[in-house]
Amino acid sequence: MNPKPENQNFFEKVYAVAREIPYGRVTSYGAIARYLGAARSARMVGWAMNACGGREDVPAHRVVNRQGLLTGKHHFSGTNLMQQLLESEGVKVKDNRILDFDKLFWDPSKAL
């Protein structure tokens, strides 16, 4: 998926925020959208994560939905790559949901 030219700048802003998510922590699509001043653009953040195409400099695996569900997992190569990446950072996942989501949640509006 190639982003439209008008979305490329927004996508780069999303990637910049995603790069700040600390190792072993997670955030949500909506939290990134709110931080960028586009509170109703959580879906666009999801599109940006999908469009990053597995860029190693963008930890897309740390971005989940507002309930801690791994809703973007089907965009990763391999069946459970998103979960495996999170678990390699010490994040526990059960039934495609982050355990201790509230404890591990990183809010860019408070952190940046």
UniProtKB/TrEMBL annotation:
Q: Which residues form a coiled coil?
A: none
What name does UniProt use for this protein? Answer: MGMT family protein
Tell me which residues make up the Methylated-DNA-[protein]-cysteine S-methyltransferase DNA binding domain: 9-91
Among SUPFAM superfamilies, the record links this protein to:
Methylated DNA-protein cysteine methyltransferase, C-terminal domain (SSF46767)
| CDD domains in the record | ATase
**InterPro entries according to UniProt:** ATL_DNA_repair, MethylDNA_cys_MeTrfase_DNA-bd, MethylDNA_cys_MeTrfase_DNAb, WH-like_DNA-bd_sf
One GO BP annotation is: DNA repair
Q: Name one Pfam family in it.
A: DNA_binding_1
Keyword tags: DNA damage
Cross-referenced Gene3D superfamilies: Winged helix-like DNA-binding domain superfamily/Winged helix DNA-binding domain (1.10.10.10)
Highest taxon listed in the record's lineage = Bacteria
Q: Which GO terms describe its molecular function?
A: catalytic activity
